[in-house]
Write a structure and sequence with these properties.
The structure is a homodimer of 486-residue chains.
Chain A lengths: L10 H4 L8 H7 L9 E7 L18 H9 L1 E3 L2 E2 L5 H10 L3 H4 L17 E2 L14 H7 L3 E6 L18 E3 L16 E4 L6 E4 L11 H15 L5 E6 L11 H8 L10 H23 L6 E7 L22 H4 L3 E4 L8 E3 L3 E2 L3 H9 L15 H5 L9 E5 L11 E6 L2 E6 L5 E5 L15 H17 L6 E2 L1 H8 L3
Parallel strand pairs in A: 1-9, 1-10, 2-12, 3-13, 5-6, 5-9
Antiparallel strand pairs in A: 2-11, 4-18, 7-8, 10-11, 14-15, 15-16, 16-17
Chain lengths: 486, 486
């Protein structure tokens, strides 16, 4: 029904520069044999905000290497993480499915929040990415790729859910927890799980020597892997622990950012230093590809797992931050570079989401699609090449949980064209925004648009049914508590 | 609709000996204050078959102490485990909920079975008992009870899901795995997870000295706890690792059972020796209660987490074994003793299930019910005391998984009165049995009773909806594989 209200978006309408010139070259290279096979480097940053990069408009953070990626390829203005917190987005990238379909809708291991404080009971959710999922890494390994994972994993509490059991030949530093004990060697530390009060002793995820900085160490390992794989097709997932807390930048960089007057700082100097270190690592990876003459033969994808952390950066003009379903929590940088296939400096305004990378990578590398697996993703190749239609109906989010980030509440979201509807699971309240006119989500126009609101809500509910999303239920303990004191 | 077809069962109709004489005594003792509060000892055996006890008819296994429990209290003929494998039943005992409602429907950590071999995709399931659940131990601890857990836990892969985080003051030997490495000290050993191929190094769950036998060590710890708690109300959950594999009996006992000719053995001599050791442990616990004059003030519950293991014992006249939804997989011994409250030597034919223990314990101890928590259990007090009605409609099972036990297939079950309907999730086939006439489930009478079959199926489906059971879906990888070879 609602599809009549909105124009189905076509790649050619949205992407500023389409790349018809590349079609022949792509064909001549071929996809499926020997040394001409396309490598893939997927760089995933943790908690990097949408406008924390020069190429997305930041005047504060210095990110020349990442900006160069944007110049050399395509920048998506409306890139989205599949969730406003980390683990579900990671699961979506690896599986090609919405977190709701996976039943992996909350960060891990989140334990329980106060049992009596909240009006609703959180939905049931898994605490690991099931081994049944054929991850993008498994698909590529099966097709003959060398696969490596480096950095933050955060998708399972037991060792047999680690990257080496999910398709990666090599796992460097990927384990159960979502942040290192420290960014300085030996990267250890203690952490109190906020929901259980238990203190977790974080062991060193990686070797090194005194003074080593984790971002640099991962870059070094990434370079090593690329060098050792130069004669074979490879898939590298460089998943930085940065720029997640603990906020610990390299001292010399921190000093530089402290020079900016506090009022003019977009984020904390330590955070800024971490962003710059991540940028350095991207420079190292790209220079290694160039030096080995692999750059033209490598699809590089750069993204983040959720919006910027409230205590670290400023996400304006977007509303809110990590942990919230407003744009500040879910809109993230998405850049792709693939010389000869993607027009340099192009900008794409089509909404895309974490689930899309999997089928995109398969199509780019000439590996057969796995439609039974990446059910909720769409190959972005038509957008990248300007060739073919890209006709998605809408994007969806399902966050039936609580967290302690500002402006967060349990909610479901549909983005359909320029419209975004947010359903508050506690109150049933509906918020409708027109993102084209109101990127900051300041004007809730649900009351002015009752029919559209009802239609979008119905569509959101149909989607929830279709992916078998687990619902929130009323918390009976909350009700009981309320009775006693009065 | 269907409730018209069957008589709702009333306690007084089913329990052979009702215990009206006890009503006054019960009242005079009171339930809620000081030293007269009722203690609870819940003894849970792993994989003990329905007729593996003298009091259930075995002529082979020697279980005088457990038989004495039956003589001193009530024996349920139609006691059921909430699942045909262990972890879900354990979750049901602790939470008072059906495994399907918990979304904890498979043993842990079961990993994945062959992705292409099976027609259906297993339902999504949790790999730990969520901390949000207010377990029976938490409820009792809140009410001032000392709580202790000993033995097999098997409800979570991380330490913060262990008994000490689920309401138990004391945890002896309870951890993530479901069987010890060895039953002899230091109880260590290696185990290959059948689904992942990973080898798990099982550390010693308990101290001891050379030659110590795990069943005895747990009995010793149970005695210690009872002695130290004699002046306070206590809840002890003695959850034996036995009689689960590895089948390792004490040598002297094994020798005795080996004397029986093989053809006359109901099970393996090692298994029989383990059953007898469990019986010894029950004797030790009961003698400790007697010595401390706590017996009259203690409700003892004895049960098993699923039917007998095919390679260990013979479950006939029941069909099949552990892992199957036939009676041999889910019908288990259930005994309760509480002098002065339960008529000695009584037999109860009312179907009861693991979920029922939680509300039963709360009522017996005078602790307020938690209807928001033990949603799927019913207090058995009317059956125990002969006082009041016990009107349950039906019992249900949901096993949307595969395992390697004989006669197992993914299935749902409803038992309504004497009728039992099994729905095969792969094929949709329906099996209907009248358990009163056909305990061995030999005659599928579904075709002769189409209306009853349809009604029971509809009722089963309504129940699945009501508990938000996760469904099996077709396995698209299975279909794809089938196409290729032909």
């Amino acid at each position: 029904m609602l599809s009549h209200l909105f124009h189905v978006s076509l790649a050619v309408l949205f992407c500023v520069a389409s790349v018809e010139a590349c079609a022949d070259e792509k064909l001549s290279e071929g996809h499926a044999n020997g040394k001409t096979r396309t490598n893939v480097v997927l760089i995933l940053i943790d908690d990097l905000g949408w406008n924390d990069l020069g190429c997305y408009g930041s005047k504060y953070y210095r990110t020349p290497n990442i900006d160069a990626l944007a110049k050399g390829g395509v920048r998506f203005t409306d890139g989205y993480a599949a969730c406003n917190v980390c683990s579900p987005t990671r699961a979506a990238i690896l599986s090609g499915k919405y977190p709701a379909r996976l039943l992996l809708t909350q960060w891990l291991p989140s334990g329980r929040w106060d049992a009596t404080k909240y009006r609703m009971r959180e939905a049931r959710y898994l605490s690991n990415l099931p081994l049944e999922e054929i991850t993008v890494a498994e698909a590529m390994r099966e097709a003959g790729y060398r696969t490596a994972f480096m950095g933050k994993w955060h998708l399972g509490t037991e060792t047999y859910y680690y990257p080496e059991h999910q398709g990666f030949d090599l796992n460097v530093a990927g384990r159960d927890y979502g942040a290192p004990g420290s960014y300085f060697y030996p990267f250890e530390g203690k952490w109190r799980i906020p929901t259980t009060g238990k203190v977790l002793e974080k062991k060193s995820p990686l070797n090194g020597k005194a003074g080593d900085y984790l971002v640099d160490r991962l870059a070094e390992e990434a370079e090593k892997f690329i060098v050792s794989s130069k004669d074979e097709p490879f898939f590298l997932m460089l998943s930085h622990y940065a720029v997640h807390s603990p906020l610990q930048g390299k001292p010399d960089k921190v000093k530089e950012y402290e020079k900016t007057p506090t009022k003019k700082q977009q984020g904390k100097p330590h955070y800024a230093a971490m962003v710059e270190s991540v940028d350095d690592s991207v420079g190292r990876v790209m220079r290694t590809l160039q030096r080995l003459k692999l750059e033209r033969n490598t699809l590089v994808i750069f993204t983040s797992d959720n919006g910027g952390f409230a205590k670290a950066t400023d996400n304006s003009p977007l509303r809110a931050n990590k942990g919230s379903n407003y744009e500040g929590g879910i809109r993230v940088p998405v850049l792709m570079q693939w010389p000869g296939h993607i027009e340099p400096g192009s900008i794409c305004r089509e909404p895309v989401i974490s689930n899309d990378f999997y089928p995109t990578i398969l199509e780019a590398t000439g590996i057969e699609a796995k439609p039974f697996q990446h059910l909720d993703g769409m190959s972005l190749m038509p957008l990248l090449s300007g060739d073919g239609e890209f006709a998605r109906d809408a994007l969806y989010w399902h966050y039936p949980h609580y967290n302690q980030h500002p402006q967060s509440f349990p909610s479901g979201v549909i983005r359909d064209g320029d419209w975004k509807l947010i359903e508050n699971f506690e109150t049933g309240d509906l918020q409708l925004y027109n993102l084209a006119k109101d990127l900051g989500e300041n004007q809730n126009v649900a009351q002015q648009n009752p029919r559209l609101t009802a239609n979008l809500l119905a569509k959101l509910k149909r989607w929830r049914n279709s992916v078998n999303a687990d619902p929130m239920l009323k918390n009976p303990q909350y009700q009981i508590k309320k009775k006693t004191p009065k």
